[in-house]
Amino acid sequence: MKARYTVVGTKLGWVVVGGFGKGISRISLPESSLEAALAGLDDSIPGAVEDASAFGDLPLRLQRYFDGEMVTFPDKLDFEGATTFEQVVWKATRSIPYGEVKSYAWVAHRIGKPRACRAVGGAMARNRFPIVVPCHRVVASDGSLGGFGGGLGLKKRLLDMEAGG
Q1: What are the tens digits of pLDDT across the range 51-66?
Q2: What is the number of other CB atoms lying within 10 angstroms of the CB of residue 58?
Q3: pTM above 0.85, yes or no
Q4: Which of 1, 12, 91, 132 is deepest in the core (most CB within 10 A)?
Q5: Is it the case that residue 147 has pLDDT exceeding 90?
Q6: Of 89, 135, 138, 159, which residue is the catalytic one?
Q7: 92 to each of 2, 8, 30, 67, 85, how far by Cα in Å?
């Protein structure tokens, strides 16, 4: 199946969605330039061609999400190349509702591995599907933000946006 991608302009920047037809393989966090958003696309989805229709209404839902609307993302994800542990962590994280925040310990308990908080954090760091797998909704047990691939400023902004702020 041919690799495809689409570029989505949002209020917070450019987002790239890509995949091979078995589902979404990659979503970028918003970048201020199109070039930055496209960086690494060829490494993760070699030979992808631009196709605005490849992901249905996902681009519109992403725009609405970044506009501050509560949006759901039931889209099929392509976990190829991810470990079983990462897949389990990402699926558990995906169950965190819009506007709610959970801890790394909560995710670890949810997957039946209560001592795996650090491993959960590692899986979050490798999340290829930000927003759809809302790793920004996972924080440290003490309430501190923990980490985030897009930086803590963006994580706080997303959490504030979802909280209605």
Answers
A1: 999 999 999 999 999 9
A2: 19
A3: yes
A4: 132
A5: no
A6: 135
A7: 30, 26, 23, 25, 11
Residue type at 128?
Answer: R
Does residue 100 come out as left (phi exceeding 0), alpha (psi in the -120 to 50 range) or beta? Answer: beta
Please give the C-alpha separations between residue 5 and each of 17, 38, 60, 89, in angstroms, as whole numbers. 5, 10, 14, 25
Tokens encoding 20: 């091979």
- Residues composing the chain: 165
* DSSP bridge partners of 9: 14
Q: Is 135 a catalytic residue?
A: yes
With bands split at pLDDT 50, 70 and 90, how would you rate the model's confidence at 165?
Answer: low
- DSSP string for residues in 66-125: HTT--------B--TT--HHHHHHHHHHHTSPTT--EEHHHHHHHTT-TT-HHHHHHHHH
